[in-house]
Amino acid sequence: MTPELLPDLTLSLLLLIMAWGALYAPQRSDAMTLFIAFGVVVALIWARLDAPDLALAEAAIGAGLTGVLLMHAARALPDELHQDYRTASYWGALGFTVVASLMFLVHLLYDDSLFNAGLLDTESDLTPRLRTLADAAVPESGVEHPVTAVLLNFRAWDTLLELLVLLFALGGLRQLFPSGQSDDSATTASWPESMTLMSAWTRVLAPLLVVTGGYLLWRGSSAPGGAFQAGSLLAAAAVILRLTGLLPPLRWSSLWLRLSVVAGALFFLAVAAATAIWGDGWLTYPGAYSGLLIISIEIFATLSIAITLSLLVIGEQEDLRS
Amino acid sequence: MNAIELYLTLGIAVFLLSLHGLMTLYDPIRRLIAVNLMGAGTFLVMVSLARRSEVPDPVLHALVVTGLVVAISATAFALRLIIAGSKNDKTDSGGGNRKP
Predict the structure, then answer these.
(1) CA of B72: which chain A residue's CA is closest?
(2) What domain range is A289 assigned to?
(3) Same domain, A219 and A300
(4) Per the CB < 8 Å rule, is B47 touching A70?
(5) What is the pLDDT along chain A (322 residues), one digit of tens a residue?
(6) Is the pTM of this model over 0.90?
(7) How far apart are the CA of A246 and the nearest CA of chain B, in angstroms?
(8) Inter-residue contact B11 to B42 (CB < 8 Å)
(9) What is the C-alpha separation between B76 and A147, in angstroms, rounded?
(10) Which of A47, A76, A105 is the last residue of a domain?
(11) A154 chain-B contacts, CB cut-off 8 A
(12) Is residue A161 part of a domain?
């Protein structure tokens, strides 16, 4: 047991307490608050584990937007029903999952070929093959930051499909609102008008969020940051403006809104098709232009992610069906 | 025990704890939180594995960034389904009757 382990132990203990509270707190609102706190602790752990990209994304998405999403949606739900939900197979299922997880853990911790190789000797042949390939190819990818290079060059397929997942989620969300004007959802939409402090803060916070988002987007090619972090910060700005009533409803009928929702996926697909027809293959960027292509894809993707996430989090009848 | 082994164990512990929550809790919001926590446990294992070498593995980091965005899309959709389902329940049971 070394003193360097102390912050890690503290964070681990905190995380377990937050997880327990988020699941079993007596009140549902406490559980949701503790879930947000859980996200913040996870962001700190990412920072401890040298994953600044993830710390940024987790703080914005995992803690911030998911928390708002839960609290916003919980107002539309009836009060919690306390009901014991243990089925007859409870003990068997519990035993099975505990044994399976412990076996997985032992495998992770004590299988030398998987674990110790990377830890003891970074230069050995046993470092995972993928990351050796990724590290070697970063200088040719057009960006300097390895995570951005993986996201938008080596594994661009994943990122394209992820933009499509966002689109599908939004499409699914729209189906759950009846078309035409409805009567009851409009009454639940407004938040209390008396949040003077919050609306004053929002006026300061929103421009700062936009500037920080733009900075993260631009820095993403050479340092932690990128389209997802920037997009979620912009979405957070839109969400707080919308919740305090400073921003009018984002109307789905507006052509610009629909265009910006699909802009990222469309531009990405256009680049992919262009490289497939005139270039070396699907999503293989020409070397000289890859930096430019990646930054333009990121700009369009940021716009789409920001609008889609804010619609997913606070989209109401008036946003999505009018 | 070093920090990486600690975080690997923690990831599995969070996963198990929230799986237990998913199995026993009834309130749909809490079950959704449990699913999100299971995701967080999985990400924790992945990022700890990425940290095994001196320079963290960018492939796993990129996968987790993708996973975060997919998780929030799924959560938003699930919440809307829950709300739509609870509205249906209310109309089925004769309107406004919240306790079964």
Answers:
(1) A66
(2) 145-322
(3) yes
(4) no
(5) 577 888 899 999 999 999 999 998 888 888 999 999 999 999 999 998 888 888 888 888 888 899 888 888 888 777 766 666 677 778 888 888 889 888 888 877 776 555 454 444 444 444 566 677 777 777 777 787 888 888 888 888 888 898 999 999 998 888 887 766 555 544 445 555 657 788 888 888 899 999 999 998 888 878 888 888 899 999 999 988 888 878 877 778 888 888 888 998 999 899 888 888 887 777 777 777 788 888 888 899 999 999 999 888 887 777 777 6
(6) no
(7) 23
(8) yes
(9) 26
(10) A76
(11) 59
(12) yes
Residue A100 in any domain: the answer is no
For B:48-87, CB contacts with A below 8 A are 48-59, 61-66, 68-77, 79-84, 86
CB nearest to B61's CB, from A54, A82, A135? A54
Number of domains in chain A: 2
How far apart are alpha carbons B50 and A55 in whole angstroms?
Answer: 14
ipTM confidence score? 0.88
User: Do A306 and A194 fall into the same domain?
Assistant: yes
Radius of gyration of chain A (CA): 23
- Put simply, the answer to whether A85 touches B25 (Cβ < 8 Å) is yes
Which domains are delineated in chain B?
A: 3-92 (1.10.287)
Question: Are A37 and A162 in a shared domain?
Answer: no
Q: Which domain-ending residue is among A52, A76, A100?
A: A76
Q: Are B10 and A104 an interchain contact pair (Cβ–Cβ within 8 Å)? A: no
Which residue from B14, B93, B40 is spatially nearest to A81, judged by alpha carbons? B93
DSSP summary character for residue A179: S
CB–CB of B50 and A51 under 8 A? yes
Asked, for residue A127, whether it belongs to a domain, the answer is no
Query: Of A41, A17, A42, whose CA–CA distance to A30 is shortest?
Result: A17
Buried b / exposed e across A205-224, counting CB within 10 Å, b at 16+?
ebeebbebbeebbbbbbeeb
pLDDT beyond 50 at B19: yes
Q: How far apart are the first and last CA of chain A?
A: 61
